[in-house]
Design brief:
mainly alpha, disordered N terminus, 445 residues, 2 domains
């Protein structure tokens, strides 16, 4: 998505059509009468047919870095799963908490948040979801509470650092705020929110989660090493995944995009996995099996949604909302920071947070001189980061990680309802933003 702010005309056809299409896509998704990928692709195609976007503009609106990254990581996970890697991790981690579902719920939340802060939330959930599903299968407990907790923890953890969530990367790049500044200003409140969320998870689900004594006994008696189905691919899966994670950590330094790293890693995994098969037909069958593991519904939903949101951004809807905020705050720094926090949280729960943040950046830069320069509005940047990242927990389509988890879960037979997630996720998101509200007032004003 481009970072430039687009002009707008409230009465223009593009403004009205893009906003109406976004609303209709959401209505279809919420009603669950039509598959979300179909709804998004239909909305995207309709915008091109109506002339709101040209085909070239629609293609440009798709973030192929995100699409390529997700596809590559799903291939890596699909190959690694065949080795027994995730079952091995699941058994070992479950045994560490004595097979207690409540303990596993807390442990998965903590691990997910920490990994999301050090890597990014989408990479983290792609690696953790298979482990979670394996654990739940072993203990014969419903996976939904664990997956819900995983989504929320990934977005909270991603809030804490410069590299944890794409909005933070955009803000850091535009403002030259450092990695250490992000940690110093955002990590403290992220830790508080994570602890509060873990307590809520325990009160809502943990105290009621039960695993049969026999299932726990069987789990504790298992030899984790016996879960490894293919030791050769087990070793290579570990090597490739570790190298990929290291590459993600230094991606900016070596000038590589996430999609390049993920697709290269996926290609290496496919190559290693297919070396034993000499016959061309056997290789094709093996690769086809891996490709079935890719969440194509999620991939195409993203493609459609990127086009719809691109139209909304280009027609000026997001710029209009952002400008209304700057006028409403009347030039007061405290009101501006708090207003940006709540607007970015609500908006990011409804639309993708990347174009919203990209549009807000030039607007906030433009008003910086009213407050004495760029350094004076640092609290506003932290408000934007907190609202955009945490707002993703409000709905199922609020953040990329949410959709990835939902897609993987539904493929495994676990239904993820938009409405069910929102009824619980949105109030929790509002609670986390309320904590940020008081944190910003306490720390900066």
């Amino acid at each position: 998505m481009g970072a430039e702010a687009h002009s707008y005309n409230l009465e223009s056809f593009a403004f009205i059509a893009s906003l109406a299409t976004l609303v209709l896509v959401y209505v279809f998704i919420i009603s669950e009468k039509i598959n979300r990928a179909v709804a998004a692709l239909l909305g995207a195609s309709l915008l091109v047919v109506m002339g709101v976007l040209s085909q070239d503009e629609a293609i440009a609106a798709v973030d192929f870095n995100t699409v390529g990254f997700l596809t590559g990581m799903m291939i890596v996970v699909g190959v690694a799963r065949k080795s027994g890697l995730f079952e091995y991790i699941a058994v070992r981690s479950s045994q560490m908490v004595k097979g207690s579902p409540a303990g596993i719920l807390a442990a998965l939340s903590l691990v997910t948040a920490v990994l999301s802060a050090g890597l990014d939330n989408v990479t983290t959930v792609l690696l953790i979801v298979p482990v979670t599903m394996s654990i739940c299968g072993r203990l014969k407990v419903t996976p939904y509470p664990f997956l819900f907790a995983l989504i929320v923890a990934s977005n909270i953890g991603g809030t804490a650092t410069l590299i944890g969530d794409p909005p933070n990367i955009l803000i850091g790049s535009a403002t030259h705020l450092s990695f250490n500044q992000f940690i110093w200003n955002l990590a403290p409140v992220a830790v508080v929110i994570l602890l509060a969320q873990m307590v809520l998870n325990h009160l809502i689900w943990g105290i009621r989660l039960r695993a049969h004594h026999g299932e726990r006994a069987v789990l504790m008696a298992l030899d984790a090493g016996e879960e490894i189905k293919n030791r050769r691919m087990f070793r290579w899966s570990l090597i490739v995944i570790v190298l990929m994670l290291a590459a993600f950590a230094v991606a900016e330094i070596v000038h590589l995009k996430a999609a390049t790293i993920a697709l290269f890693g996926g290609s290496i995994m496919l190559l290693i996995d297919n070396i034993p098969f000499k016959a061309h037909r056997k290789q094709n069958e093996n690769i086809l099996g891996v490709m079935k593991e890719v969440e194509w519904i999620t991939i195409f939903f993203f493609i459609g949604l990127f086009v719809v949101v691109g139209a909304v951004e280009r027609s000026g809807v997001i710029a209009w909302l952002a400008e209304q905020l700057t006028h409403a705050t009347g030039g007061d720094l405290k009101r501006t920071a708090i207003g940006v926090l709540w607007l970015s949280a609500i908006a990011s729960a409804i639309i993708d947070n990347i174009p919203f943040v990209a549009t807000m950046i030039p607007l906030l830069k433009d008003i910086a001189h009213n407050f004495g320069g760029h350094a004076a509005i640092d609290p506003v940047w932290w408000s934007l980061a907190l609202g955009a990242c945490l707002g993703g927990n409000g709905t199922l389509i609020g953040a990329s990680a949410n959709l990835v988890v939902a897609g993987m879960a539904e493929k495994a037979g676990v239904r993820f309802s938009f409405l069910k997630f929102t009824l619980l996720g949105f109030p929790m998101m509002l609670g986390s933003v309320a904590i940020c509200h008081f944190y910003i007032l306490w720390r900066y004003f």
